[in-house]
TrEMBL record:
Transmembrane segments: none annotated. This is Tyrosine-type recombinase/integrase. The keyword Aminoacyl-tRNA synthetase does not apply. Belongs to the 'phage' integrase family. PANTHER family: PHAGE INTEGRASE-RELATED, PROPHAGE INTEGRASE INTD-RELATED. Residues 223-389 form the Tyr recombinase domain. The keyword Nucleus does not apply. Keywords: DNA recombination, DNA-binding. PROSITE patterns: TYR_RECOMBINASE (PS51898). InterPro entries: Arm-DNA-bind_5, DNA_brk_join_enz, Integrase-like_cat_sf, Integrase_catalytic, Integrase_recombinase_N, SAM-like_dom, Tyrosine_recombinase_XerCD.
Amino acid sequence: MHLNSALQRTFDTRRDTKKIFVAMTHKFAIRSDQNKDGKSLVFLIVRSGKLKTTMNLDIKVEKKFWDPIKTRVKKSENSENFNIILDTIEAKIILIKRDFLITERILTPELLVDAINNNTPEFDFISFCLHHISNSVYAKNTMKAHKTAINKLKEYRSEIPFSMLTLDFFERYKKYLLTKKGNTDPTCWTDFKILKKFINLAHDRGIKLAFDKSKFVVKAPKTTPVFLTPEEVEKLHAYFFSEFTNPYHILPLGYFLFSCYTGLRVSDIQSLTRKDVEKDIFRFQHIKTKNDQYMKIVDELREILDHEPKLFVDRLSDQKLNKHLKLIATTCKIDKKISMHVGRHTFATTILLKNGSITKLSKLLGHSSLKHTMVYNHITDQSALEDLDKISFNKKNPHSPKEESGSVYFKLVDGEYIPVNVDEELKKPSP
């Protein structure tokens, strides 16, 4: 597959007042020297004015099988595969030139070769993201989330020129995450928040996008956090102290209950030492927000810590903790998908259900804004429905005997409501 000559001339001769695009040619050639097998290396030559760059390709052929006119390998062993590689490189060159042209960036032979090798972050969105991830300082979990989001995008498409990014592209990618990858809406939201961050960063760095970034809106999904009721936590508490507890469940359950009593994130729990929790009141720094905070060890939590001395000495990864918690929930017959973060949700809802202050709760959770805490207020609002049972307009006397037959109504006699059988009342003669 060869380039259309008219299209090639358009790319190679375009000039504007900014001199963004200048004459650039390229061709494949074969080196004169040979290896011990009598084969020569095929390479790419890129020229632009007085500038020249070469790029060695992983293709070696005998000179008699090289066609210098078509710049392709003649029919021979592996010739079809070699020509596919050359066609792919040539198609990529056109794509790179188009992308630089659309985004009004200067393209040099060296930049072209770098872009072919995906070393130019200004051309490829994935390379851009990975470049900034590797040169940024993130917390451990934040770094992991960023890498996971970009690696999933890379699975979807290994190379994504900025010119390919459109709102439709992101819609298709979201559908892929939901249907092919089986991701949930909250997971997609997390990934897209990260992608939006890099879109904004690219725009700030002067890279022109093929769409209006203000229309790339990432809305948080409407979800209800999973939490445990006091009765469910009581089941776990009893299982923790039971003589029949699976030994592999002790540590993960202990860490989970610690979160239920303190509301700490798993990252913060992982950062604590046994010495920290030996104090009745300890100070720690939130891994996520870097804010300092004090936390109290209540009596019930102290019993848990004393029961298992290995807590905050022996560690389990976040993944193993969550894996064990799912098995623990099944063992305790709790029909909920439990993770370490559910402990944090349980702590928050329990405080509000017991009429705790949402402002104080926000501080205990280490939230940077009260709006993050309000989601728990919506959950506990449902408990207000229980008060509807108190509404009654029927003035029944709770101590009156129940009538076995006939309708009953209540009649005011000497300032007191008494039950009256309708059938008997009707039998009485009129006054």
